[in-house]
Amino acid sequence: MATHSVDTVCVQGGWRPGDGDPRQVPIYQNTTWKYDTSEHMGKLFDLEESGYFYTRLANPTNDAVAAKIAELEGGTAAMLTSSGQAANFFAVFNIAGAGDHVVASSAIYGGTYNLLAHTMKRMGLECTFVDPHCSDEELEAAFRPNTKCVFGETIANPALAVLDIERFAAAAHAHGVPLIVDNTFPTPVLCRPLEWGADIVTHSTTKYMDGHAASVGGAIVDGGKFDWTAYPEKFPGLCLPDESYHGVVYTERFGLEGAFITKATAQLMRDLGSIQSPQNAFLINLGLESLHLRMARHAENGRKVAEYLAAHPRVAWVRHPSLEGDAEFELAAKYLPQGSCGVVSFGVAGGRAAAETLMKNLKLGQIATHVADARTCVLHPANATHRQMNDAELAAAGIGADLIRLSCGIEAADDLIADLEQALAQV
Ligand SMILES: Cc1ncc(COP(=O)(O)O)c(C=O)c1O
């Protein structure tokens, strides 16, 4: 469906029903497939033929939904994972392990930070974090001979920093490594990182893609352009025989367009599990069918609410990439010209106590540990995700005690603003 717009792919991409097939992608709620001969099964195990044998590795429902996400991002292959955390772990671990090094933006989701800074460190992988707006010299200095990839988020959660994808891609490529971009917040409706030079895109589909707070999931998309074979010494897992698969060389057998995802499926799904349940894939697909409509409203509501808050005398500060005057405004204008996302962060005069009063009085914006949902939700990190930190530690982490993260849903902007108005009046 390469000739169709993102809107059309949202609705009809991925699943192509044949004559008499169900119009909606069916849920293959089975673990196993039956074959007539052991020889046939053997060919599947040797990756000589494509087909399904066990849902821990692959399932047709998941593959149809992954194919839609690949089309949306303009990639050549994709896979679904059980969560966004699993997607980011698999994307990095597929090419980097013990003794290797990763360069990552410091403005990333806290779970991904923990994964790279702590859990993967225990696996022998080191990570250097750089400010996404660091100088070229600082970025250059972060690379080591054993660096295997660069990682960042298009729009960081919760910092709302916009990644200069072209700059980070150029730096990664100059060192012979790919750029992995977590595109959860804008989704391919508002930004397609592969078109700006990124090589691999990941998603927490739990957020806007699902959009209804119904299912946790993740996705990895390969752009199919990074030439692993130009650096076989850096990427032996893709360029040399895989002994655990009868010596298959992924780049030779599946080409640049298929090697990365086939290896992640054949090795990592096989050994680590983390497949998405077909039931959840079905739910994500329902979300994808309206993603183009919802993202436009989320982005519009985020901008309108940010503009309202910026003009309110009781609001101390506001951050939203599409808000004129925001530190990220220029990068957002380049990478996110149709809008950025529905997430706004702000602080009210009066600090922590004022934030608590405001949140308690919101009626539509309900308190939830979530973002990117059709229903507006709100979180006070100092009382939730960062509760263990005191005010000084919060300030050092760049998260003020007054910070409120508001995720604008797809309700009417006027109603969200009226809700904020009455809550602010009580602060
Ligand atoms: C940008 C980003 N990436 C990854 C994740 C992790 O995704 P999940 O919660 O689906 O594991 C999140 C979760 O909030 C996120 O915001």
From TrEMBL:
<keyword id="KW-0808">Transferase</keyword>
<dbReference type="GO" id="GO:0019346">
    <property type="term" value="P:transsulfuration"/>
</dbReference>
<feature type="modified residue" description="N6-(pyridoxal phosphate)lysine">
    <location>
        <position position="207"/>
    </location>
</feature>
<protein>
    <submittedName>
        <fullName>O-acetylhomoserine aminocarboxypropyltransferase/cysteine synthase</fullName>
    </submittedName>
</protein>
<keyword id="KW-0663">Pyridoxal phosphate</keyword>
<dbReference type="GO" id="GO:0003961">
    <property type="term" value="F:O-acetylhomoserine aminocarboxypropyltransferase activity"/>
</dbReference>
<dbReference type="GO" id="GO:0005737">
    <property type="term" value="C:cytoplasm"/>
</dbReference>
<comment type="similarity">
    <text>Belongs to the trans-sulfuration enzymes family.</text>
</comment>
<dbReference type="Pfam" id="PF01053">
    <property type="entry name" value="Cys_Met_Meta_PP"/>
</dbReference>
<dbReference type="InterPro" id="IPR015424">
    <property type="entry name" value="PyrdxlP-dep_Trfase"/>
</dbReference>
<dbReference type="GO" id="GO:0030170">
    <property type="term" value="F:pyridoxal phosphate binding"/>
</dbReference>
<dbReference type="InterPro" id="IPR006235">
    <property type="entry name" value="OAc-hSer/O-AcSer_sulfhydrylase"/>
</dbReference>
<dbReference type="GO" id="GO:0006535">
    <property type="term" value="P:cysteine biosynthetic process from serine"/>
</dbReference>
<dbReference type="InterPro" id="IPR015422">
    <property type="entry name" value="PyrdxlP-dep_Trfase_small"/>
</dbReference>
<dbReference type="GO" id="GO:0071269">
    <property type="term" value="P:L-homocysteine biosynthetic process"/>
</dbReference>
<dbReference type="InterPro" id="IPR015421">
    <property type="entry name" value="PyrdxlP-dep_Trfase_major"/>
</dbReference>
<dbReference type="GO" id="GO:0004124">
    <property type="term" value="F:cysteine synthase activity"/>
</dbReference>
<dbReference type="InterPro" id="IPR000277">
    <property type="entry name" value="Cys/Met-Metab_PyrdxlP-dep_enz"/>
</dbReference>
